[in-house]
Design brief:
The protein has 14 helices and 2 strands; from the N terminus they run αααααααααααββααα. It is mainly alpha-helical.
Length: 364
């Protein structure tokens, strides 16, 4: 995290895509289908539209203040004390996110692969690796993303193609078996995870090189819509395979991969999805922890923005242990019900306040 670290607009787009796709590519389909049934893809379209609006807001702020992070722009527009007030939920939710992403990796490994290994041990190892990666800086993180994300995309596309022999077109109908209400509920869920979370990208945009700034807008929108297309494709694939039972599968793509059987040669390739979940969740946890550390560093105007990485990681680890003690049912409730509501106050409210202040200053 050197003072003059810079990344290209392409790296920023890949970083944004990695953050948005992250753990959502495996985690979203099952719960979303549980809420919205066969209309889950409509829910995604609605939440993608919300995401496009949020992205337009942060790109507007970036256009007005290309050198400033979101916290710095807020301080410039609404003053020190309102910024601190807005930063309280902004920061606390980042702690929740970082802890949750790592905990989710541990829960997946503990429930699907290595059931005898203590969950806290998985979480500890992942946090150590994530914190060391964050300390390497944004340039290293951006360079690191290309290979694992290319692997993950290849795995996901491969699973979608190979599972086509298990597709039942009739499973797509009826589209709205219980009316529009479940679709709205599903949109609320997918709005909270992952689309309102893209507000955090306002902290990273100033790292883009000056000569690459004109390309940022196009690259970010392309990344957003590719992410949306993939989530819809994965969700439809899950519905086509499992039909009404799809909503009961937490790691739905893992289950889709598990039942692939082509000529008794290609079988049980769910480990590919397991690797994908671990890789993408690790990437998202790294980006989120980096942003959390950057937010605190900018809020308190620290000269050394590495100094807080390990203390922050330790706090996140303790929070994860607290969630483990509460049990997996409490965690599922927190993610599916509280997450979107909390994210609205933590991310959307500060974004609206700061964007409105920028627009009013322009008119004034």
């Amino acid at each position: 995290m050197k003072a003059k670290e810079q990344i290209s607009s392409l790296q920023m787009s890949v970083l944004f895509f990695s953050f948005m796709t992250g753990s959502s590519i495996v985690n979203i389909p099952g719960p979303l289908i549980g809420y919205a049934k066969n209309g889950a893809w409509i829910s995604l379209l609605l939440s993608i539209a919300c995401g496009a609006f949020f992205l337009s807001c942060i790109l507007y702020l970036y256009h007005k203040f290309p050198e400033l992070t979101f916290i710095e722009a807020s301080r410039s527009l609404v003053g020190k004390w309102i910024t601190i007030l807005l930063a309280i939920p902004f920061i606390t939710f980042q702690f929740h996110m970082t802890s949750g992403i790592v905990l989710d990796i541990g829960l997946f490994m503990n429930s699907s692969m290595m059931r005898q290994t203590p969950l806290y041990l998985f979480v500890l190892i992942i946090f150590v690796i994530v914190s060391l990666t964050v300390r390497s800086g944004i340039e290293s993180i951006a360079r690191m993303l290309f290979v694992p994300m290319a692997m993950v995309l290849s795995f996901i596309i491969l699973i979608i193609i190979l599972s086509s022999s298990n597709y039942e077109i009739d499973h797509l109908l009826p589209i709205l078996p219980e009316g529009i209400k479940p679709v709205i509920l599903g949109a609320y869920f997918s709005y909270g995870f992952p689309y309102v979370e893209l507000v955090l990208m306002a902290m990273l945009l100033p790292y883009v090189r000056t000569e690459d700034r004109p390309n940022v807008k196009k690259g970010m929108y392309i990344a957003l819509f590719i992410n949306g297309f993939l989530l819809i494709a994965v969700t439809l694939s899950t519905i086509l395979v499992f039909g009404p039972m799809a909503g009961e599968r937490k790691y739905s793509m893992f289950e889709v991969a598990r039942i692939i059987d082509l000529l008794d040669v290609i079988q049980r390739i769910e480990s590919v999805i397991g690797i994908s979940l671990i890789l993408t969740s690790f990437i998202k946890a790294t980006i989120t922890l980096f942003i959390l550390n950057l937010t605190l560093s900018k809020l308190f105007k620290l000269r050394d923005d590495r100094i807080l990485v390990f203390p922050i990681t330790f706090v996140c680890y303790l929070y994860s242990l607290h969630q483990i003690d509460n049990g997996s049912a409490h965690w599922i409730y927190a993610v599916s019900v509280i997450h979107a509501f909390w994210a609205t106050f933590a991310y959307l409210l500060p974004l609206i306040v700061v964007t409105a202040a920028a627009l009013l200053r322009k008119k004034g």
